[in-house]
Amino acid sequence: MSESSVPVRTKALRCLSAVVEADPGVLARSDIEMAVRSRLMDISTSVREAAVDLLGRFLICRPELAIQYYPMLSDRIRDKGVSVRKRVIRILRDICLEQPDFPRIPEIYVLIIRRVNDEESVKKLVSEVFQTLWFAPVREKESAKLINKVMNITDVVVNASKDTGIEWLEQFLEGLLAKEEGEKVRPAEKACVQIVECLVQNIMRLDEIKGMSKRLVACLATLHLFTKIRPNLTVKHAMLLHPYLSARVTPCPGPSQQAVQLDAHILHYVARILEVTIPLMEHPSESFLGQLESDLIRVALRAGKMVVESCMACLGAVVNQVSKNYELLKQCFWGFHTALETYQRDCIASLQSGSEPKLAPTLRPSILRALFTMGLLCKYFDIKEFTHDGNPKILEEIFDILLFFSEHMTSDMEVRKNAISGLGFICTRHKEFINGKKLSKFYHEILTANVDCTITKSPQLELKNLVLENLFNFLTEEERRMLEQDAQCKCNWQGMLLSNYARKWKATHKNESLKYMGDVASGTGSSVAQTYLKEVLENFFSSQSVRLAALSVVSTILRQGLTHPVQAVPYLIAMQTDCDPTSRVKAEAQLQEIENKFPGFTNMRAIEGVCFSYRLQRVLHMAKKASGGDRRESVGDGASTEAACNNSTSSSRQTRRNTDNGTTVTASEEGANPFANAIRGAKEVDSDVPNALNSQLYSMLRANITSRRAFLKGMINLFDEMQDISLGRLVYVADNLAFFPYQCQAEPLFVIHHIDLLVSVNGSTRLQAVREAFFPELKELLAAQAALSNNGQLTTTANTWSSAGFAVNDIMYHPDVQSAQHASEIQEALMRLDLEEEKEDVLIGRVTSASADQLSQIRESIRASRACLLLLNLKQYLKEVYGITDSKVQKFSPSDANKMWDKPLTRKSGVRFTPDLCLRSAIEELESEENPDSYKNALTMSEEMARDLVQEFFEFRKLILSIDPPDDEGLDGAVANVDDAACQANPGEDVPLRLAPDRSLVPQSHAPHSSDEGDDSADSDAAGASRLLLAQSAPQKRRGGRNLHTAGRGSKAAPPSTSKRKSSSRQPRSRSAFILSSESESEVESLSEEEESI
């Protein structure tokens, strides 16, 4: 089972399955357990599926094996392979059915529930599992089985509400019961009746047992869930639940605060259950209703916010629909109104006198409750019922009072929060306020306020949460009203032929339009969505609580179709990389739904979404560092980012330089630096199977080859020097490109192909720019050489500098000097620079002694070369990890048939993507953004800093020159460019060889094309062009003058024969070369234009 071949490992597991079938006890052996565990973590999906299948066949019949293998089996429910996840879910379902006493059944239910937002096939399987386990009727004799099932359901409801939420269960149960409508046999409804009866019995029993408040809360929460879906199931139990509003719940052992919270939850669930059941009761007694109203008001005047809102909602249902008794509520309303008016006048007087308004400690609780409760009264009741003369301006007065406290009570945050909550309640019922100028301006100021996300309990973050919650509640209430109106219209339409409504409709149908009515109703929601959408989306880059609240608002907007979904796509792409699983799952579900409904929208904004995801990772990175965490989920190992990539340099240094002052920072001191680690684009970058943060996005686009290639090409184009993107973002993009879940050879080959295209255009230019920055005299030397080669003498303008031992001005002002002497002196200077380029100490000396302008040029040229360096590192990693050879790279063309490169990939273990030099530079870039003044004023450079720049140059040059070194024919042709006199003047010295001008940047075809390949498209030609010769930057071979066959002055040199070339003694290859002339640069530009047109 440790063989490298995937089929062999799969067959080995099947053979082991046959052995276990004969003796299941074999699985209890420790060596077999270790072997199965290793195969469950195998790289191949088929091997993991075979290992899961092996366990599934025998865990059911052997409970002791289920306990032993459950931990490793449950981990595979999050497997990347869909078939593996589905097989695990089926095995866990069988365990629940066959082993009802298994101690981890509630945990199994929660694990399965978490897959409800998976892809469609998995989601369907989850629904089938719960239909089988929960909603199948139980026989009357199996009461123990029913109790066990109900207890498991309550555990799942409580745990799921904290994790994924229970909305999915509501939708599932509602759909399941809707399917049975009109059927004679309704097994799901019968099962729900049994569950509700059992829950009520448990509630009565638990109330008499001390210390069972947690279980009582769980039963009430489950009963509330079933009541929301089918209220008629709980109507007959309503009077049994009423005493919980007045009776004191026995507190459980522990802190008193925990007991208070449990009591609050009990009151909350009881009020919510009574809210939907009391209106369905037939002829409830007046005494019962009066006692219920008194209890609800008493609780509302004493309890916390959650209970107050539940009690007011219950009062709204009871009073508005049943009793019509507004006297108690009227007294509450005017008491709160008088208190708020009095306190508002005092605050206005304080502001006019120039002092800050303050709230007396004795009045503070009453004012806080009045602000919150007044909003609820305006939400659930018609205010006209509370006024004697029907004052039409009473609502505006209340709104102005709440807005005043929201804006001006900056010294008391609790007052502002309660006032904002009250404003949200008013707008829910009276939607004319939410788009008003006053409230819109106030909401925009809060949503756009700059807040430090590293402070988790910032008051401004709490205000943002409240505003987002108000928007969410408004949109949800609008949706509920729309659904009720639609249902009422349908009922009226069906019954209008049998009622007086028919005559009314006949008289008014010309002036009524169902479409118009629906458009008007949805117009307010759409207006609100478009008004606040941009600000809400920008809050995706805030703290975790704000992100989750903003995502809820956006999900509601998208579900209702209030705005164009493409606006939210890049933000959702960013959110699906969030470290918070709740936010990540919601964003992935929304993104998948958009892709299913509107194919192409995701691909349209995918690149922008990846850039936004980096922005989010920066926020998370800063928040993690501020909280004192050592690592973040998407941040790589800091130690790996400090290692040098070049083995010839001192990569073993354990300290990192600080660019501000040249000092060193030890590993222990880096923990205090908020940017001690680079931001990586993958989870577990040091593992054998790292997971790109945007892997879900790539998997979504992968099925369509056009979308996939456009996405990959767009990612690579971010490295173009014209984009001017920060190195930290490029490292993040490179990580994603390295760790995407590629499945066939065509995918990494396509990435490598476009890396070659981009580097072939920018690489040599960047390398030459770095050389010219290190050697300012190089450009003049090359210009002099080009002029001498073209005209026989130099005609350029004067220059004020001179190289050591070589005065350029002498040549420029003495055209009568022999051309051979000119060429010889130029060659000597170039060779001297060539030798200096190989010496690290010389380059370090040039950097440390450089002027401010030259130092700036060196830094800028090195910075501009890092994108190419990162791409070359990425290419090298993809070739190593997937075993891609140079021949495959040369043969690949995007225009090839898909089947040619559809072979599955095998990922090698032990290969890591650690572009250390780029990671270190990305860290310094982040630090420079934090301290821009220090970096801007750093005009001098220490030797350590200079050494790092030189190492980056060496590494970049090595990778550039390794792309495609020139062949012998190209070198021999280059001999013709060397003047005869130069060869004769230095017969014993080496002459740096260069390609002829006509071979400066000619695309080379590395693989012979057959006749069938002659008709390839332009994209195939681009594949050849992607491996350019890079003549200006290629390594040069040195040959002695005796190997050069020269003619007279002005004649061209004849290339040596093949035999003579083989027998000639060759000097060591030089690791540098220089661009000959400006004409070569123009050829580069023209070639890049041709490739862009292709």
TrEMBL record:
Residues 526-756 form the Sister chromatid cohesion C-terminal domain. Residues 1080-1094 have a biased composition (Acidic residues). It is found in: Nucleus. GO terms for molecular function: chromatin binding; cohesin loader activity. Keywords: Cell cycle, Nucleus, Repeat. InterPro entries: ARM-like (IPR011989), ARM-type_fold (IPR016024), Cohesin_HEAT (IPR026003), Nipped-B_C (IPR024986), Scc2/Nipped-B (IPR033031). The keyword Repeat applies. GO terms for biological process: chromatin looping; establishment of mitotic sister chromatid cohesion; establishment of protein localization to chromatin; regulation of gene expression; replication-born double-strand break repair via sister chromatid exchange. Residues 1065-1079 have a biased composition (Low complexity). Signal peptide: none annotated. This is Nipped-B protein. Belongs to the SCC2/Nipped-B family. GO terms for cellular component: Scc2-Scc4 cohesin loading complex. Its main location: nucleus. Residues 625-673, 1001-1094 are annotated as: Disordered. Pfam families: Cohesin_HEAT (PF12765), Nipped-B_C (PF12830).
